[in-house]
Amino acid sequence: MGASLTGMDTPLTTTFPTTAFLGLGAMGFPMAGHLAARSRETGGRTLVWNRTPARAAAHAAEFGSVAATLEEAAGADLIVSCLPTSAEVDGVLDAVRGHLKPGSVWVDCTSGHPDAAPEQRARLLEAGVRFLDAPVSGGTVAAKAGTLTVMVGGPAQEIEAVRPHLAFAGKLVRVGDTGAGFAVKAVNNALLAVNLWAAGEGLAILGLRGVELGAALDVINASSGRSNTTENLIPQRVLTRQFPATFGLGLLAKDAGIALDLAEQARGSAPVIAQVTALYRAASRVIGAQEDHTAALKLIEQWNGVELK
Amino acid sequence: MGASLTGMDTPLTTTFPTTAFLGLGAMGFPMAGHLAARSRETGGRTLVWNRTPARAAAHAAEFGSVAATLEEAAGADLIVSCLPTSAEVDGVLDAVRGHLKPGSVWVDCTSGHPDAAPEQRARLLEAGVRFLDAPVSGGTVAAKAGTLTVMVGGPAQEIEAVRPHLAFAGKLVRVGDTGAGFAVKAVNNALLAVNLWAAGEGLAILGLRGVELGAALDVINASSGRSNTTENLIPQRVLTRQFPATFGLGLLAKDAGIALDLAEQARGSAPVIAQVTALYRAASRVIGAQEDHTAALKLIEQWNGVELK
Amino acid sequence: MGASLTGMDTPLTTTFPTTAFLGLGAMGFPMAGHLAARSRETGGRTLVWNRTPARAAAHAAEFGSVAATLEEAAGADLIVSCLPTSAEVDGVLDAVRGHLKPGSVWVDCTSGHPDAAPEQRARLLEAGVRFLDAPVSGGTVAAKAGTLTVMVGGPAQEIEAVRPHLAFAGKLVRVGDTGAGFAVKAVNNALLAVNLWAAGEGLAILGLRGVELGAALDVINASSGRSNTTENLIPQRVLTRQFPATFGLGLLAKDAGIALDLAEQARGSAPVIAQVTALYRAASRVIGAQEDHTAALKLIEQWNGVELK
Amino acid sequence: MGASLTGMDTPLTTTFPTTAFLGLGAMGFPMAGHLAARSRETGGRTLVWNRTPARAAAHAAEFGSVAATLEEAAGADLIVSCLPTSAEVDGVLDAVRGHLKPGSVWVDCTSGHPDAAPEQRARLLEAGVRFLDAPVSGGTVAAKAGTLTVMVGGPAQEIEAVRPHLAFAGKLVRVGDTGAGFAVKAVNNALLAVNLWAAGEGLAILGLRGVELGAALDVINASSGRSNTTENLIPQRVLTRQFPATFGLGLLAKDAGIALDLAEQARGSAPVIAQVTALYRAASRVIGAQEDHTAALKLIEQWNGVELK
């Protein structure tokens, strides 16, 4: 681990005049907007990069950021990435080799795999760059509002150094060492998946019996069975039949699969997360990986001959 | 259904000077206290009955209610029952035959079986008595505070007649016809069971990886995976290792089983509730039916060789 | 239980000159043929009844039985019934009241519910008739060959009395008291359901990886993972894409549901049978209750984007 | 893949005067005995190696093989390995570097991971050695009898070259390309795991109801629910309460986990295998990874308060 030690010898940057944001998807676009606003407040600037450059140009026009190539963005003092999976992050790391700035910090907000994090950190440390796994929760609403929850894995000192700049965060918590942020995110999303699916099953049972689902949710949400899915997702997305595609079914299946993978690696036993992961894989294939994650409940509807409305 | 029609011909009582409460368990005791206080405010009185009479005497001493025999209580204008299962309610109905007061209303707060409700209602209607299934949620804390959520099945007119007297309710919602209250309660508790179990699995996965569980819950509770179980039950009962026995594991297994039974009756498909019901049956046998429902997670701890603390 | 005792006082018939068969479905039709042949050999005759009389007439023409009304058939010395569920048997019992012959024996080959058996026996005993629950396994092939496996619940003496006449049996075993036959059949079919589903999942995994499924089944059938489903059902019905509808998906879901019900009644824990029952309910709704039970694997095919061939 | 091409240029050995067997565990010991007998018949010799050398000496004494160092064994014309997992095989491959004989064939009978096979083959091809994944099924009984089922992945020509020498095989089938052998074995064992667990649940249900389990198995084994587990494993190992430890619970959990992993890699959906894998992980932790795989049913016994005997 000589490279790592060498990397850790590089002094950590203490000011971040130039920041960069990689990945301007549904989440990244507004997140990068908050980053750009904070940079401007502190006299800095934010470079933005996206695989399809038109989206970077649109961001620059809307938020005063600077559309950049990947190589330019890689030279920033603080880099924030938000990509579909760890595989895309690895691809970007390949591409920026030789363009990184020693002393800088890379904050990866991707919902990545915990096993990828130590490798990514080691690889960046060879260039004197710190890596923090920092996935977010809250969806596009919180991304726009700048109130995302960020769960970060890595050394506390590095996290504190970048904390003031992550303007998209409403709450930012260090949950452990490198990889812990990804692990907590995977488990959070596995719980989302289970709670959502179970609520779908429960409402299908009530629907089959002729109970009015709005009234049922009203009391459940004042009772012990409530969750974020009964309080928010199902009333807003399912009962309305809108299923707005802000977080894809295929990505939720992937995240639940990461949690299952962690269980398996440790020879752990998580039969419910295992079952639910398989059911989301089915839903992703039958309903569509690009559909909103709440559309998984359409599979339950098919199985029960009932519509949740 | 001539009997039923005859029963419905009996005019519904509009004032309830004498109320009664049957079943002074951990929930019923404080609920009956609120009923007694409301009665006193309106110039009435509350009779209380319990299988072990000493508990009724204690209630009278604490709340100014009147300890009564089952036959005396049966003659009240409004009867509220809160017993372990529908079987115990049926037993009480056997015992009070001939002692009921035509025009009165029986509100059953037991977490009963939806199939029992129409039979119980029909049986009481023969004596001119209305039956409402009205299970509650909120636990002993809300029972003491008088802020329980009550989910009621039955005719709206009857519900409105008794609503002002059910002083233990913080929220009372009509969810449908006779039996719908029991159905919604069963589903609520099935969701509680699933959400709790899944959270236990998720935390076990993180524990196996060395993540600090308090920090993980902190971010999950600001994220999409949150539920009543991550916000309240697990921090208060599991991480503290206290598992205070306010709601028994065996009763939660029973409630989840009712939800599963409803699915099966309708030839519905609820694979996650089905699995989780079986896991709670296992936990109930291995950990103990009288233990607090949150102690189900001790089974997950055994399976993963990790303690949730 | 005075009626039962009275019933047991009626001497058990020792010869069965007139036999009757109720229910000439895919299984019952050939079974009744064997019953008729055996009767003829012993100088007796066999009455046959079916809800749609044309089928009884066809049976008489083919097997030399006698098409009869339900009331006529009810007067036989030995009655064998084979109907879809216990509910249909109860309906027939209603219809034959007053037409039964004291001392006779009723052998019900329906895949019935264990809880129905004691009630049906008690009811028939009031008329001096013995009831044996005697479901069969082996499908239409064994029904035609007269090699069915029969699992019987009831007193040994009664079983031995009728054993020589049940010519459709290749193997007939007393498995316990009244209801035990139905219980063992439900569990057998639950195992069939699980083994079939698991084999479907396993082959889908191999199919996704490009393994040739015929070769895979060849070695599995010489290995520890083999079952009746890998040895017979899948090669003959699934890989051929024929799915001949000899045993309906809806009926298998019903049987698995009976096994699950038995577990629940005993507060037992059977998480795999619980999940699989729910999956067959889903398959029954999505693929069709009338389809062959092996067509459940089409659901797995949909979920995995692969065809088992 | 230049190395691989070079490797494939090395002519394949056509005679195998010296064979070697690596790993003399419960399976490998008798398998190596058959290999040695066949070698002797054809004028060759068999080197045997084991991590603990005393076992190799014992083998030499019993079967006329030659105890050897790993380096000596590595120079054989045909090498057969049978180790706990692919990780141990990788370790051995590290150790034999530089000692392999170009043109030889390595047949790995480990229940390995399908992903390991292509890497192991590529690595050996660099030394001009062919690799075949060839896991076996049949347990210690078939290993002793020389009637194992062998499922092989790799080029047909190479398989045919070694087929006559694999004297422990009763049946040897090419199931596909490199890795396919491991995949089929993982799926076979996943089916074993599911069928065994389901049978345990089913018998627990019958046991709770007082049905005699021997009679129940007797009819199930003549019915559609039968499998290798009801026909052999449960009567011989569970009902006898002997649970002879010939195939460890932990290894079966590992194999089911490989099947689950294959499903996840292909974004497949296998909810029952997923659930059962988790249950075996639990059993492995609670009952013991070294216990016989059939001892998993002790967990079901605990959950149901019933003994399977």
From TrEMBL, chains A, B, C, D:
What parts of the sequence cross the membrane? 20-37
- Family of this protein: Belongs to the HIBADH-related family.
Q: Which residues form the 3-hydroxyisobutyrate dehydrogenase-like NAD-binding domain?
A: 179-300
Task: Give the matching Gene3D superfamilies.
Answer: N-(1-d-carboxylethyl)-l-norvaline Dehydrogenase, domain 2, NAD(P)-binding Rossmann-like Domain
The name this protein goes by in its record:
3-hydroxyisobutyrate dehydrogenase
The protein's UniProt keywords, in alphabetical order, are: Membrane, NAD, Oxidoreductase, Transmembrane, Transmembrane helix
Q: Which domain of life is it from?
A: Bacteria
The record ties this protein, via Pfam families, to: NAD_binding_11, NAD_binding_2
Q: Where is the 6-phosphogluconate dehydrogenase NADP-binding domain?
A: 20-173
Does the record bear Ribosomal protein in its keywords? no
Q: Which organism is it from?
A: Deinococcus metalli
